């Protein structure tokens, strides 16, 4: 068994480790693909910057073409093209600035490009203004002077440097993206292999566990069959033993009654003999008082009546105990008769039967709905009646009595609760009060300590239980738990 548990633990740890590794692999796959996406975004960004630089170069070229056309032909349409293009150049520069804000070298180049562009546009506007003022009749061959050529060349050099930088970044980022894609592919393949391994291991472990469960199920079925046989045999033995105990209790109680009756009879005769004896002593005291001693008079008039009283009290108590044992014995031998019991009607009937006592003590009895049960009506009535009577009997006289009877269904059973605000029961006596001839607290109420023992015995016969929850001086709650339907075997008698 220890080896099997160890093997199961190893299998469990292996499968758990496989799933952990699979989770790690999944995270790695997601990470690698996110990295690939990042590199792809960088490549796209580089291409976008390079295209923006190309667009800026084309704008500068369009400016130069518009200037030349206007200077050569004087057509105002060339001037309109120049103004539109000149207005677009700063916007394009700002767009490139936003795209290259994370590249310091490109930022520096763009600052220089912006300044040179302003210088170039100033030169172009000066030449156009000169043409508009009448000019000096410059020729097409001399449209660009040395300063113009230097500025245009610087613009081209800066834009070429920016394009070269972006192409360099493009090469680097494309290579990184390729590596990332390769890494993602490797990680995905590894994750797939790991998934297959974990799945195979899980299937193997599951099949092994199912085989073990099948074997265990067969063994449990065999054990259950053996257990049912043992339980049936033990139940039969207990029923026979219980029947023997009940017969023994009946016989013993019956046999005890005969000598008890004799004792009670002789006690009555002794009590009757005291009267003529007292009369004789009274007469002797009148005739010859010196003959009767004080001890004799005290024995006849005090000791003997007191002794007879003690004997009578003891025999009456013993008679009650014998009657209670006989009643328990008869209840144990009575065949239970299951039927649908309307618990609300049953509780109402019990309260009505005790109404005189309830009114006398000023007790408030509250009842709440109680579910119907299929059980032995007489036994259930005896249980609930005993609990209600005890609640009335042990109320505290210094506060208004309150008793609540309620019920509910829970886990396929019916719970009946009888709650009071009486004197309560010490927690150490919660089980003791259900023992035969055992009582708790002050013994200022009549009883032999049989009622709750009888209640628990009846509850057991009905397939139920009864418990007590209480604190001294804070009342008590007795809970009766019964099956919703009494099982047939519980209603038979052997």
From TrEMBL:
Molecular function, one GO term: ATP binding
SUPFAM superfamilies, alphabetized: ATPase domain of HSP90 chaperone/DNA topoisomerase II/histidine kinase, Homodimeric domain of signal transducing histidine kinase
Name of the protein in its database record: histidine kinase
Residue ranges of every copy of the Histidine kinase domain listed in the record: 251-486
UniProt cross-references to SMART domains, sorted A to Z: HATPase_c, HisKA
GO BP: osmosensory signaling via phosphorelay pathway
CDD domains: HisKA (cd00082), HK9-like_sensor (cd19410)
Keywords: ATP-binding, Kinase, Membrane, Nucleotide-binding, Phosphoprotein, Transferase, Transmembrane, Transmembrane helix
Gene3D superfamilies documented for this protein: 1.10.287.130, Histidine kinase-like ATPase, C-terminal domain
Record field: transmembrane: 12-34, 181-205
EC number, UniProt record: 2.7.13.3
PANTHER family membership: BACTERIOPHYTOCHROME, TWO-COMPONENT HISTIDINE KINASE
Substrates-to-products reaction catalysed: ATP + protein L-histidine = ADP + protein N-phospho-L-histidine
Taxonomic lineage from the root: Bacteria, Pseudomonadati, Pseudomonadota, Alphaproteobacteria, Hyphomicrobiales
The organism of origin for this protein: Jiella avicenniae
A Pfam family recorded for this sequence: HATPase_c
């Amino acid at each position: 068994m220890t080896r099997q548990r160890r093997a199961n633990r190893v299998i469990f740890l292996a499968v758990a480790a496989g799933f952990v590794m699979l989770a790690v692999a999944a995270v790695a796959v997601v990470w690698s693909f996110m990295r690939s996406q990042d590199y792809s975004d960088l490549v796209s960004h580089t291409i976008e910057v390079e295209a923006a630089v190309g667009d800026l170069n084309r704008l500068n070229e369009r400016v130069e073409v518009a200037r030349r056309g206007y200077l050569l032909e004087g057509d105002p349409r060339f001037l309109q093209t120049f103004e539109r293009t000149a207005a677009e150049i700063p916007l394009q520069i700002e767009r490139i600035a936003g795209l290259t804000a994370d590249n310091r070298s490109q930022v520096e180049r763009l600052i220089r490009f912006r300044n040179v562009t302003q210088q170039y546009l100033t030169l172009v506007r000066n030449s156009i203004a000169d043409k508009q003022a009448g000019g000096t009749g410059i020729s097409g061959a001399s449209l660009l002077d040395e300063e113009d050529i230097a500025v245009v060349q610087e613009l081209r050099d800066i834009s070429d440097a920016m394009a070269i930088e972006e192409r360099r970044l493009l090469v680097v980022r494309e290579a990184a993206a390729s590596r990332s894609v390769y890494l993602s592919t490797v990680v995905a393949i590894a994750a797939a292999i790991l998934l297959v391994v974990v799945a195979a291991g899980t299937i193997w472990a599951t099949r092994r566990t199912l085989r073990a469960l099948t074997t265990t199920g067969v063994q449990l079925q065999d054990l259950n069959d053996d257990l049912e046989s043992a339980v049936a045999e033990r139940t039969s033995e207990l029923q026979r033993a219980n029947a023997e105990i009940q017969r023994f209790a009946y016989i013993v109680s019956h046999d005890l009654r005969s000598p008890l009756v004799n004792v009670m009879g002789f006690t009555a005769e002794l009590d009757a003999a005291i009267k003529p004896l007292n009369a004789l002593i009274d007469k002797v005291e009148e005739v010859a008082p010196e003959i009767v001693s004080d001890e004799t008079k005290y024995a006849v008039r005090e000791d003997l009546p007191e002794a007879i009283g003690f004997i009578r009290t003891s025999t009456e108590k013993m008679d009650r105990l014998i009657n209670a044992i006989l009643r328990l014995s008869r209840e144990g031998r009575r065949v239970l008769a299951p039927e649908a019991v309307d618990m609300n009607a049953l509780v109402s009937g019990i309260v009505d039967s005790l109404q005189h006592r309830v009114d006398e003590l000023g007790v408030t009895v509250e009842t709440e709905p109680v579910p119907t049960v299929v059980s032995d009506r007489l036994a259930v009535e005896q249980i609930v009646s005993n609990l209600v009577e005890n609640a009335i009997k042990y109320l505290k006289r210094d506060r208004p009595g309150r008793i609540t009877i309620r019920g509910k269904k829970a886990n396929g059973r019916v719970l009946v609760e009888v709650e009071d605000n009486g004197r309560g029961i010490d927690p150490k006596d919660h089980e003791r009060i259900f023992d035969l001839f055992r009582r708790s607290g002050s013994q200022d109420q009549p009883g032999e300590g049989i009622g709750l023992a009888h209640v628990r015995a009846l509850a057991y016969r009905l397939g139920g239980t009864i418990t007590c929850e209480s604190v001294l001086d804070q009342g008590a709650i007795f809970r009766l738990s019964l099956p919703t339907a009494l099982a047939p075997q519980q209603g038979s008698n052997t």
